[in-house]
Amino acid sequence: MLDARCSILVTCKANQDGYLSDDSQDWKLPPLLRFAKPLDLLRKKQRGKQNGGGWLLFRMAQVVITIDGPAGSGKSTAARLLAKRLGASFLDTGAMYRAVTLAAMEAGVDMNDEKQLMEVLDKRKFGFRSEGDVMPAFIDGKDVTEKIRSPQVTANARYIASRPGLRERLVRMQRDFASNQKIIVTEGRDQGTVAFADADVKFFLTADLKERARRRHIELKEKGISEDINKIEGDIRSRDESDEKRKVGPLKAASDAIVIDTTKLNIEQVVGKLLKIVKQRCLKKG
Ligand code: DC
Known about the structure:
The protein has helices at residues 31-35, 40-46, 75-86, 93-107, 114-123, 151-161, 164-179, 191-195, 209-222, 229-245, 267-285, and strands at residues 8-14, 54-60, 63-68, 89-92, 126-128, 137-139, 142-143, 183-188, 201-206, 258-261. The chain is of the alpha/beta class. The strands form 3 sheets. Strands 4-8-3-9-10 form a 5-stranded parallel β-sheet, with helices on both faces. A 3-stranded antiparallel β-sheet has the order 5-6-7, covered by helices on one side. It has a two-stranded antiparallel sheet with strand order 1-2. A hairpin with an 8-residue loop joins β5 (126-128) and β6 (137-139). The protein is globular. Mean pLDDT is 82; it is low at 1-11, 21-27 and 37-61. Residues 71, 93-94, 97-98, 157-158, 161, 188-190, 239, 243, 249 line the site of 2'-deoxycytidine-5'-monophosphate (DC).
């Protein structure tokens, strides 16, 4: 849990054992901090005033949790809920690829020309806000959170995702975004392998293709869009292929990722598993 990447000093009320006292919940600390142990050295310096109780100086490093996986594996919903439960920020890296795709479509550039795509990235101002478990997206100050979810953007995003230069820039944006957060849950395709290869906890979610198509079908239906399930399945298969086969940042599990098959699990069960592992890992390292 503790490393040199981004240490934050936090003062907290301690109980007699030197851990956070029960009323720490009132302190609006991210829940994960409540599981953290203070550094021994700092603890000794701060203890002793009131029979072991008193104030602690916490050194809390930035915690990065990555969730990668294919479309429909449940990673987005799981990442959002996990972030909410941990009081962490949430980063949807797919939204970054989508926002650049939308800007390129609006500019009418050739989707196969990396130079033109780079120019779009340079000219337009992309903004992503951390608002708890949601991440509004902006282009030149205009809210495009909904617009980037259109089927046309979904279909064209692969052009952006397959360009090494663009990926490099977007990975940089992802790291910048994360460096401003205390605890972050980030989801995408290459978060555990490229963007945050030294993340504290890495997950890779999978699910059967048919189940993923079924989930997407329900999701679209809820939005009032009726689409043939076989077409959805075909689209997902082709997105998988393009995600897995690209040379840079392909979709794959990091060697140290925990792989979870969500085919037979509901979202609560998935989040329950993730939460349990995060707490175990962070406590162990503390
Ligand atoms: O997860 P999503 O459907 O919102 O992703 C949109 C596109 O961006 C999809 O084509 C995969 C790509 N992507 C990527 O290549 N790397 C990421 N880290 C996230 C998304």
